[in-house]
Amino acid sequence: MSDTKFTIGWLYPDLMNIYGDRGNILTLQKRAQWRGLDATVREIQRGRVANVDDVDVFFFGGGQDREQALIYDDLRQHKEHQLQQAAKNGAQILAVCGGYQLLGHYYQTADGERYDGIGLIDVRTEAGSKRFIGDVVIQTDIEGLTPATLVGFENHSGRTFLGPGARPLGRVLTGKGNNGSDRTEGVRQNNVTGTYLHGSLLPKNPHLADQLIREALRRRGDGELSRLDDSAELAAHDWILQRARRR
Amino acid sequence: MGLRKTTAVLAGKATGALSRVTRRGGGTTLPGDVARAIDPKILTQLTQDLTHGSIVLTGTNGKTTTARLVTWLLEGAGHRVVTNRAGANLIFGATAAALDKAGADGRLHADWGVFEIDEASLPAAVQEIRPQATVVLNLFRDQLDRYGELESIAKKIEKALATQSETRAAILNADDPRVAEIGLGLPRDPTWYGLEDEKVASQTLPHAADARTCPHDGATLIFDRVYVGHDGVYRCPHGDFARPAPDLTATDIELHGFDSLAMTIHGTRVEIPLGGLYNCYNVLASYAAACSVGLDGKYVAERLKTFQAAFGRQEHVEFRGRHLILVLSKNPAGFNETLRTAVEAAGGEHFIIGLNDRKADGTDVSWIWDVDFEQLQDTATTVIPAGNRAYDLAVRLKYAGVKAEEPQTDPGQALDLLIETTSEGDTAYLLCTYTAMLDLRAELVRRGWAQPYWET
To answer: Which residues of B touch A134 (CB under 8 A)?
Structure first.
C-alpha cells in the first residue's frame, strides 16, 4: 500500500445512517484501497471537532426524525464552519437525503416552521404531503462520467428546489427526484454533491464514486485513477436501467 | 346483532373455502375482508367467544416463531387454539383465522387465540381482540419503504399498550432500549424478560444499530453487553435511563448451531430443537406468556423439547444428497444473527443468499449494506447470490471481501449451481428474504424435495 493517505469523514455514523449509507463509505474506501491508497474512515461524532483538514471526502447521510433532531444543533454549532472551510479547500462532500436537506438553506415543515440548514448549497426544502418512494434513474451532465446515468432508490417527503447558484446532479428519467415537478435530481455546487438517491448510491454507481475520489485528490495535484473491473457494479446498475425501461 | 355476526361468519367461511379450492393465496386474509365488510365488529365478537382469551405478539423479528411456540404450549396443555398462520398478521389475517375456526352457529369454539400482529396494526388489534397478554419482542429497522421509521412504529405500540385495562398483562423485552422506553412509560409495570449470560454477549454494537441514544437527554447509550442487534444491557452515561431489571431471565445459554439451544429460565432447564441466540429471546418470551396464563414451568420445558419450526424458519430439507437449512432472513438485525449462527456455531461453508424486492420483502434493498456479510469471509467456500436482486447482492459480497459465484436470478438455476459447486453430504444454508424463500421453496417442491407449505 502506498503512502498516499485518503480519508473519508463520516458525519454522525451512529445517527445518520438510515438507508444503508455504509454502502457509500465501503465503496469509497475499497475503491481507494484497490488503487493502492491508504484509505481510512474517520468517524465524526457529535461534539467539538478539532481539525478536519485531513478529510478528502465527507459523507453525510439521512437519519430518522428522532436522530436528526439530535444532530441538528450540533451541526450548526460544531460542524458548519469546518465543512465550509473544507469544501473551499477542495474536499468533496456527498450528502444523501436528510444530510442533503441540512446542507441547504432551510427545511420547512407542513406547519410552516422553518429549520435552518447551513447554507452550503443554494437549495431549500419544503415538506410534501406524499412520500416519493421507488427506483430512480437520472441522466447526468458531469463531464467524462460514463455511463451518464445514475441509479438509486428514493424515499422522501421533502420537496427540494434549487436556487440560481445550484446546478442539478442530473435530470430525472424515472422517479421523482428533487421535487417531482421540475425533473431535477440532486445538486452539484461548491464541491458538494447532494442527492435523494440511496440504494446505496455509490455501489451501483462506481463511476460517481471514482469521480468523487478523483476530484478530492485533485487538490493535491493528483487525480489519475487506474481502471478497475466494474462488471459486477455495472451489472447491478444495468439491472435497474432495464427494469425502468420495462415499466 | 346475532344474525349479522352469523351472516358475516358464514360469508367469510364461504370465501375461505372458495379460495382454498381455487388455491388462491391459501385463504389467509380474504375471508377476513369479506366478514369485516358485513360486520366490522366481527373480530371482537368472535374473540369474546373464546373460553379463556387471547395472547397478542408483536415486534420486528420473531413473531411467527414465538406465536407458534405459544400455540404449541397451549395445545399441549389440552387447549383448543385459534392462531393466524403463514405471516397473515394484519387485522384481516387475524379475523380470517378466527372465522376459519368458527362453527356453522357463527360462534368460535376454542379456548385461546394466539395472534401475531404487525407492529403498525397493533392499536386496532388490541382494541378489537382485548388480549389477556400482549408481548413486544423487539424493534429493529425493517422495510422503511413500507413501515416508515422506527419511531412512528414505537409510538403506535405505546399507544396500544397504554389504552389497555389493568387486568391485561404486557410482556416486554427489557434488553431492547426502544421496547424498554415504551414499557417504562406505561401506567403500570409490565413483565420484563431478558438474557443474562455474559459468555454469549459481545461488547460492540453491529453497524447501523437503532435505538442507541437515551430517550431523555439524547446521549449515546453505553452497552455493557450486546446480545442481538441493539438488544443487550445498556445505560445512559448520565444515569437517567437503563435496561429495566428483568423479572424473567435466561441464563447458562448453550447454542448448537441451527440444531438446538438450551438455557435455564427461573431454575428450569429448557432445551429446544431450534437454533440461534435470537431464538433464546423467542423461547423466553413464549415461556413468559405461557406462565402468565397459568401454565407450569416444568410442563413448558418438557413440551418445548418436541417443538417444530415454522415455514422457512430453520426448516431442514434433503436435496440430492445435500442437507439444506432454510432460514428466513429479512432485515439487518435478523440477517446478522442467521449469518452468525450459520458461521460461528455451525461452521457454515455453503450458502445461497436470496434477495427479492417485492412488496412483502420491502422494495428498498439498501439495507443489505447494513448486514455484516463480512462474516462469510473466512469460512464460506460457496456463496450464491440469488433472487431478483442477486446483482445487488453480488456487489455487496464483493465489497465485503467474499468470493461469490455468478448471480442467479432464477431459483432453479441457483439450486443447480449449488449442486454443481457442492458434494453429497454437504450442508448448505439458504438465507433468504420472504418471497425469495417462497421462490426457492416452490422450486424444491416442483422437484419433489419438499412438501407444499399449506400441507405441512
So the answer is: 363
Q: Do the chains contact at B149 and A65, CB–CB below 8 Å?
A: yes
Strands (E), chain A: 5-11, 38-44, 57-60, 92-96, 106-108, 114-116, 123-139, 149-162, 170-174, 184-185, 187-189, 192-195
Pick the closest to residue B37 from B101, B96, B110 (CA basis).
B96
As for the ipTM of the complex, it is 0.97
Cell output for A235: 451489472
Task: For A194-221, give one letter per residue: b (16+ CB within 10 A) or e.
Answer: bbbbbbbbbbbbbbbbbbbbebbbeeee
Predicted structure pTM score: 0.91
Cβ–Cβ gap A133/B364 under 8 Å:
yes
Domain limits for position B382: 313-455
> Is the model's pLDDT at B284 over the cut of 60?
yes
| Contacts of residue B410, Cβ cutoff 8 Å, sequence gap at least 6 | none
What is residue B441's DSSP assignment? H
3-class SS at B152? helix
CATH number of the structural domain spanning residue A134: 3.40.50.880
Task: Tell me the longest C-alpha to C-alpha distance in chain A.
Answer: 54
Count of pairs with CB atoms under 8 A, one residue in A, one in B:
91
Among the three residues B240, B269, B304, which one is the final residue of a domain in this structure?
B304
List, for chain A, all residue ranges whose pLDDT scores fall below the cut of 50. Answer: 1
Indicate the Cα dihedral angle A135, A140, A145, A147, nearest 10°: 50
CA angle in degrees (0–180, nearest 5) for A192-A166-A145: 60
> Helix, strand, coil shares of chain B as percentages rounded to 5?
40, 20, 40
B32 and B49 share one domain: yes
CATH number where B405 lies = 3.90.190.20
Q: Please count the structural domains in chain B.
A: 2
Angle (nearest 5°) at CA B118 between B184 and B313: 105
Domain span at residue A230?
A: 5-246
In this structure, are B202 and B347 located in the same domain?
A: no
- End-to-end CA distance of chain B, in Å? 37
**Partner-chain contact A236 B392, CB within 8 Å:** yes
Q: What is the CATH number of the domain that holds B106?
A: 3.40.1190.10
DSSP B344-396: IIT---EEEEE---STTT-S--GGGGGS-GGGGTTT-SEEEEESTTHHHHHHH
Q: What is the pLDDT of residues B405-424, one digit of tens each?
A: 999 999 999 999 999 999 99
On whether both B269 and B324 belong to a single domain, the answer is: no
Cβ burial A19-50 (10 Å sphere, 16+ → b, else e):
bbbbbbbbbbbbbbeebebebeeeebebeebe
Look up A105 and say whether it is catalytic: no
